[in-house]
Fold each of these.
Amino acid sequence: MQESLDFLREIVRRDTRSGVYGGRVVTRFPPEPNGFLHIGHAKSICINFGIARDFGGICHLRFDDTNPETEDMKYVESIMRDVRWLGFDWKDKLFFASDYYEQLYDLAVRLIKDAKAYVDSQSDEEIRKARGTITEPGIGSPYRSRPVAENLDLFSRMRAGDFPDGAHVLRAKIDMASRNMKMRDPLLYRIRHATHYRRGDAWCIYPMYDFAHPLSDAIEGITHSICTLEFENNRAIYDWLVDNLFREPRPRQYEFARLNLDYTVMSKRKLLQLVEEKLVSGWDDPRMPTIAGMRRRGYTPEGIRLFASRIGVDKANSRVSMDLLEDAIRDDLNARAPRAMAVLRPLKVTITNWPDDRVEWLQVPSWPRDIGKEGSRKVPLTREVRIERTDFSVDPPADWRRMRPGGEARLMGAYFIRCDEVLRDPSSGKVTELLCSYDPESLGAPAKGERKKTTAIQWVSASHAIPAEVRLYDRLFTVADPENMEEGRSFKEFLAPASMEVVREALVEPALAEPPPGDRFQFVRHGYFIVDEVDSRPGAPVFNRIVGLKDKYRPAGSAVKPADRS
RNA sequence: UGGGGAGUGGUGAAAUGGAAUCACACGUGGCUCUGACCCACGGUUUCCAGGUUCGAGCCCUGGCUCCCCAGCCA
């Protein structure tokens, strides 16, 4: 019996069986602390930590912090929080490339001594020009055959701070005519008189990614270094460096396709722009595809991991539909979010045969039968209640199951009521109130006859309901691929005008008067909601819609939604 | 134009020379005190053209399309 593995696990299994690494499996998640993690990183985290877990190995968390100008401690903190929140544990394997600066420097010196690296004193402009193009070979730097002793001297003076930014760089001596542009004597070190968030002013030369990354992997004993497709060309440098400086068995790099999600953006630059230009409320705006945003939105780690496992891993560039993510979230929430009643757009209903002062506290189950969980709460029924405006239609389509003039529907967990009379505002004609009568025999009784064609609707007692703010989130963009705009257009032009709707007149059942921030509920027939961690207050709860329920209902022969009727 | 990758229902993935499978989406029907959940059924013939083979999504040849590479970013 052999379940099918993705191509990465296939490779890891091959290597554990052949024993090249003595059975060890060591992966790593290597973020640069210069931004917040997003759903694309979540995919990578699930792959790297997931593979380590599946093969009894370990996944390191290593910050690839080699650029002092963009990195910050606040990012390492948020990244650690996000990885933990997602449910992964790097144990004591927390590393920083910036802790390897001394070792990396020594490795660079070895390369120089082996005549495999040299100090280039051309300007950045000259270097760029001499690199050639994809069709023309590059030209060797005039400094390319600088004597080893001179290179050594220059490199140590670079470190000592004898030169200004840009005066020299250290380059690998590989092949200026390589068909692979990345191999045309890649830069290894640059001078940068900048304060590093961890090393302060200890260094004024900093290693480039192409140098620091493979060597950090080798230093840590990584076996499988998994990254995204755009680094395929860099693998040649990776191999060149590690082969020249380390012994077998040594780490190898494998690439997979990064995640693209419909109706959102994933690039750090664009995400940063949304935040800085205040087009969203921050990195944790519930509409953001960041881990922080999804956390505040109410997405669960389990749901996100389920999503990651459902999309799989491959090398084909792809774009995943939001439906896949939302369904994974719903799938997880269905079994863990207790049901409650909320009315978002209230319509007044008076039960005319119910005594004015009678309050009946009904015990309503918090879970549907098929979930199989115990639990219920008390919901008060009174003469005056509120139902959803969209649950009443004066002129309903044939397959309507909700309230209609003269028709019946069950108040969920309570009695059937019949709509005897419809009151309207004389000037606008708008329905203002329903006068109904309830059937005292119908509590807990199975529906029969015509009643079987109706559905149970949510409701709240007018006198006991708690006013609540409900925030309905929707996709941030109006087009599926806002990152791929035609020339001269900005992705910002496609921001959805109503990606957040704030409903202030919502009413929730009294059990939800003081909900603990972070608690999740299913508001029946609406969707899943979370008590906002920032703005919710006891007595004035604020709920974020995590994701709506699926709704297959379309009025027969009409494109008009129930919300637009009556 | 050079080099490196990738093409399987609408979307994401399986099938590792032997009956194209799964999830999501969509459609139809069933169930239901949530038009949810759940259940059943339905649609693709593997980018194109040849070739090898008893047999090809998988192998070979030639095309086509898309992505990545010319930062002292990662």
Amino acid sequence: METPDYPLNPQQLEAVKQTEGPLMIFAGAGSGKTRTLTYRFAHIIQSKRAHPTEILAVTFTNKAAREMRERIVSITRIRARRLFVSTFHAFCLWMLRSYGDKGGIDPKFSILDDGDTKRLMNTIFKEMSINSRFLTPRRALWEIQHAKAHGIPPENYTYGSYDLIGKRISEIYEAYERHLKTLNAMDFSDLLLNAYRLLMHSPGTLAHFRQAFRYVMVDEYQDTNFIQYQIIKQLAWEHRNLCVVGDDDQSIYSWRGANKENIRLFHEDFPEATVIKLEQNYRSTKTILHCASHLIRHNSTRTEKTLWTENDTGDPVVLYEAGDEEDEARWVIEKIQDLSASGFPWHSFAVFYRTNAQSRVFEERLIRSGIPYQIFGGFKFYDRKEIKDLLAYLKCLVNPGDELAVRRAVAAPSRGIGKGTLDQIKTFSITHNLPFLEAMGKISEDPAFKMRKRVRPFYDWLMEIRSLTAEMEISEILEKIVKESGYLTPYEGSSDPRAQSIIENVQELISAVANYEEEADSPSLEEFLDLVSLMTDTDTLNETSGKVTLMTLHSAKGLEFPVVFITGLEEGLFPHERSLVDEGKVDEERRLFYVGITRSQKRLFLSFCRERYQYGRASFRPRSRFLRELPEDILQGTPKRKSASLHGSHSPFASTKLSTGATAPPNTRSEAGNNGNDFKVGEQVIHPVFGRGIIKVRELGNTHPKLLIHFEGIGLKLIYPKFVELTRI
DNA sequence: CCATCGACCCTTTTT
DNA sequence: GGGTCGATGG
Ligand SMILES: Nc1ncnc2c1ncn2[C@@H]1O[C@H](COP(=O)(O)OP(=O)(O)OP(=O)(O)O)[C@@H](O)[C@H]1O
């Protein structure tokens, strides 16, 4: 059967038709890679080459998976009971839960999130009495995650040539693994690593999966790590129907073990592979595309790609030099309002930044302006304390070995069972080789332990709930836990908005559970907890939500928006200072910028700040080197602003046209002014430009105090007395 | 045992 | 500026 009239160009169609044998689709941003992969999946079904469940497609995020699944269903009109389109993590988790017993894995294992692993590592450091400036828990975790991404077990761990520190980390790694085992838990990297081990140690399982998935496809291939590649390689090794899709210029996750080298490995392992290039960009204007291509050429190690578009030239890229982050946010929101007035709906806009910490100012401004927005990254709903507390109860019910969950549940709310008691239970569980919760059970019946009187009621209550899990809905169980534990009691009737929000969040959790039960085929507590563990907030992003989107550049991968703002283009922030030590790392930052630029369909706005508050202190940084790497002819500075808005155009920081090819111009601000410390709220002053005004707010800031001044006939302005000559009346 | 306060480290980026 | 952890006193 031939392809129906899929809306694809000839190269895309070629990739779709080439269903047999290894295939690499290698192409630049916005060239329809994901679209091609989706149609390829559909085509394999429609041409009856395989049953829908015999095709595996791996995506980068759950959201991408969900979208691809929906597209496939709408193209093929199949009734999809279970399509294997998911992230690596979700797929590996599924393998482990359903076939883990073949590799000696207890399928009820818990998944530890970042906070859990951090806390675990802290206790390990205490146990091993490690207190070093060079070896922090954070650092050890980082090393271990890296080792795991490369499939290195503790005994083989080495750290460069620094034997001493390497040996220490290897010991920590070993202890960490031991703890995970007693907890019957895995961290995120374990999901991949243990799935790989399962395949390698259980020939029957490997054979089964090789047969089960006759076609394998991977999106965002450039950001797969070593273990992920080994997994797909193993699955596809015999039938060799492996299609990978990627763009080396968009590799932005090497810091968490992603390995661009996988592109080369693919060619080595599958030398017969066909390579198809896609060269037409369907997403962006000519200007934006030119900007992106010009930038990325500054990277030394990359494969040159042709990328062209039939789209319009479009508007110039706009650069704004902001005084500080408040001014930057002010400018962004002003632009959003302008464009909104000319017909762009709120969800056309995305504001990107390098670090999550930068989001706050934008949020505040958006709230004040009454613009609806959605923010991703940083703090997740499921990271909130009240949510984690309640989920801990549910985890105890599933995995009695999960000491972390039990400890958390016991302490929320506090019920007279403290650290001493819990440590005794811990010791008992080790000496008697029992899961933590069972040790608690034994102790609560043993008269030798005085504290049993306090432990018993809690334990019995938990067991009672556990005995009900079979017959009750999950949401009912959760409600029972909330009610009978008295979790909300301290917050009820409180007028504190914080308490109010805790109650609301708990209610939201209950409805989330109920919602899950309604949607799922065969809901289970275990599956719900899995979904929560793997959920990221980008998964809840909605492109037609009628809201402005705020996110980091990393989260923006794979998305597209009509109007994009890339903010904080300062040396040390973007590229981040942690990357400056290493040319390769700066290249990755540049790719990140490339990814950001290429998310944009119609308009692109860039900005940087002269001054930015970090950790509450001011820092001055020159504009990002990346700005000098953009083509100067399409870049347009925003003309110097004339008063009119709430927060001021501090005249010394007027925007300038970008000057390329030279180092950033020196800071032109005058140091002549008063440093502001001797102005008081309520004082009247005269400003050289705005005239007579009264000081409303004095913000002491560390180095550069700010004054909020109300000027007659003009309104409120933010003034830096250090840079302007203010005269007292 | 637990609530509160202060010291300290922190910030890249996320499945 | 903020969140986490440990010391301290109730
Ligand atoms: N043949 C085509 N005809 C019309 N539109 C297309 C075609 N191919 C791709 N597009 C559109 O171009 C945009 C980019 O496609 P897609 O997201 O698949 O590209 P991509 O290569 O995966 O992008 P990136 O790697 O930058 O995330 C989408 O809006 C898609 O619908």
Amino acid sequence: MSLPHAILTALLEKPSSGLELTRRFDRSIGYFWSATHQQIYRELGKLEAEGQIRALASEQPARGQKKQYEVLPTGRAELARWTASSQDPKPLRDTMLLRLRAAAVVGTDGIETDLRRHLVLHQRQLAEYEEIEKRDFPPGRDSPQDRLQHLVLRAGIDLETFWTQWLTHAIEEFAELS
Amino acid sequence: MSLPHAILTALLEKPSSGLELTRRFDRSIGYFWSATHQQIYRELGKLEAEGQIRALASEQPARGQKKQYEVLPTGRAELARWTASSQDPKPLRDTMLLRLRAAAVVGTDGIETDLRRHLVLHQRQLAEYEEIEKRDFPPGRDSPQDRLQHLVLRAGIDLETFWTQWLTHAIEEFAELS
DNA sequence: ACGACCATGTAAACAGTTACATGATTTA
DNA sequence: TAAATCATGTAACTGTTTACATGGTCGT
């Protein structure tokens, strides 16, 4: 039940059409809650039917026409309720860790290549986050909004840092094993 | 497509019945790939139909009777293939980060309580992992199997360490904001 | 023999992914 | 005017979660 709330947040930050939302999910929001355009259109339809958002006037809803959506008071209230509600952390689900555990039983052939590939991907993501930090959070600016958003970005940076370190360590272990 | 492989791994480590598997998923495997008993029974049925596992003889398959499953050569081969195959890391999906981003727009009321609650849960999980490390990986033992499994446990420990640190930092920020 | 729990399962709802369809606008 | 791509959508499939059902075993 998080996709509608991700969309409400994005629309409150800035009213958008379906495609604009899709683009923004590819960039910022998607860094911790990804969604495809199909999911987004479906959810926009539901949210509109429920009266949480509405299409801005002046646009005819023909196919291939942009529709801009904005959040209604009901939607904002629902988002506030959800944000403040108590929710349990989801247990971790990670395929690479599962594969390593499997490798302990069926052998490590072939997995080292993918560890190296993942390392490169995580290093790339880390570099991207650090670029964003330099660009959007220069020292000095610290409105409450800035600090909250910076906190979220820090989580992304620290997570990618963890993965690069762990993968580096894992690859070293493999070098010693063989 | 990871649940069947998680089950194959668990069954290779030790042939088990559905309920035993469920218990083991609650403990070790579930730390990075959780599953409910419904998922497990359904998947066991599929894997048996595909000839990747079989019920050990000497058990009549009546309702309420334990059925022990073991992995067949086909299943082991499939697991080895999957383990070695190239797979992209799944993008992060984290509700707490999403909620913080929403809080930047609709206000932070109520979320701090849940940050503190999550901190306690992550500290508890971290303590559990460190207990397991002390018990199962004393210094000295280092067969290839041990090293791989220890590597996986290290990932769990480092991830929980990250969360406790990040949450602590987040709570400090909130203290300064208000 | 009754209640608690063990063990296996079914059904339905919900969420996410992949593949495809269709009209509108831009550009060569 | 044809091709590319923009923008919105549908359909089918896969995977996950939640709620419920059913028979067996064990302790009192």
